[in-house]
Amino acid sequence: MSTLISCDARGRASLGHPGQDYRLTEHPDGTLVLEPAVILSELEHKFLSNVDLQAEIAYYQAHPDQQLTSSRRRDRRNHA
Predict the structure, then answer these.
(1) Residue 72, SS3 per DSSP
(2) DSSP codes, 5-66
(3) What span, in angstroms and rounded, lies between the C-alpha atoms of 68 and 76?
(4) H or E element that contains 79
(5) Phi and psi of 26, rounded to 5°?
(6) What digits encode the pLDDT tens for the residues 9-28?
(7) Which residues contact 66 (CB under 8 A, 6 or more apart)?
(8) DSSP 8-class letter at 67
(9) At 80, is the pLDDT very low, low, confident or very high (cuts 50, 70, 90)?
């Protein structure tokens, strides 16, 4: 699918998707590629990049009977 995009007098183009962020890649031949993007905070990125934490979350989602309640968590910390 191709779409013609015209620039205004200041060289700006409207993509018609307000509020959407894009990643722009310029290739050596001048081709511009826009990809929809999601902006994450550094904290979100660290959370999503923590493989061990993601595995632990997946485990407890698959085994809800193994989840620790807040009182069991406190007891576990006090006995450590």
Answers:
(1) helix
(2) --B-TTS-B--S-TT-EEEEEE-TTS-EEEEEE----HHHHHHHH-HHHHHHHHHHHH-GGG
(3) 9
(4) helix 70-79
(5) -105, 125
(6) 998 888 877 788 888 899 99
(7) 59, 60
(8) P
(9) low
Query: How many C-alpha atoms does 27 have within 13 Å on its Cβ side?
Result: 5
22 near 35, Cβ under 8 Å?
Answer: yes
Which residues lie across from 7 on neighbouring strands? 13
Q: pTM of the full predicted structure?
A: 0.47
* Bridge partners, 32 (sequence order): 26
Q: Positive or negative CA dihedral for 14, 11, 35, 46? A: negative
pLDDT in tens, 29-72: 999 898 888 889 999 999 999 999 999 999 988 988 887 776 65
